[in-house]
């Protein structure tokens, strides 16, 4: 499935986590990357007020599954143009992502409300959820 969230604060892990995952270099549709709790709060507020369907991918730099699904997530942002796509690294937004226990976790929003959650990865499973919520 995914990986349990690691919060043991070792110096090596903190240094690695601070790097975050980088988005692939190709052109992305409606994809934003969030770094920091304030930016995460702004994105959530924007989703609530705009009523635009959205999906947030909560991942981490140390999560192998996250780095495996991220290129597909970026690619899907080009395919599902009516959805807003957001990537948030849990280690860069520690205060606002405390409720994320597994990575990757995908939250789906419609009309400003969270309507679905998907834990773990799988391109086909993610594609089907995106289709359902688009």
From TrEMBL:
Coiled coil: none annotated. CDD domains: TRX_family. Signal peptide: none annotated. Residues 1-10 have a biased composition (Basic and acidic residues). InterPro entries: Thioredoxin-like_sf (IPR036249), Thioredoxin_domain (IPR013766), TRL33 (IPR044193). Residues 1-34 are annotated as: Disordered. Residues 45-127 form the Thioredoxin domain. This is Thioredoxin-like 3-3. It comes from Iris pallida (Sweet iris).
């Amino acid at each position: 499935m995914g990986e349990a969230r690691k919060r043991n604060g070792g110096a090596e892990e903190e240094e690695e986590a601070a790097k975050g995952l980088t988005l692939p270099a190709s052109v992305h549709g409606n994809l934003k990357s969030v770094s920091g709790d304030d930016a995460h709060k702004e994105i959530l507020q924007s989703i609530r007020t705009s009523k635009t369907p959205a999906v947030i991918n909560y991942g981490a730099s140390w999560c192998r599954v996250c780095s495996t699904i991220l290129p597909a997530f970026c690619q899907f942002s080009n395919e599902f143009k009516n959805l807003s796509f957001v990537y948030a690294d849990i280690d860069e937004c520690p205060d606002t992502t405390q409720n994320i226990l597994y990575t990757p976790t995908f939250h789906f929003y419609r009309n400003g409300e969270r309507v679905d959650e998907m834990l773990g990865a799988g391109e086909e499973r993610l594609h089907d959820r995106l289709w359902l919520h688009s």
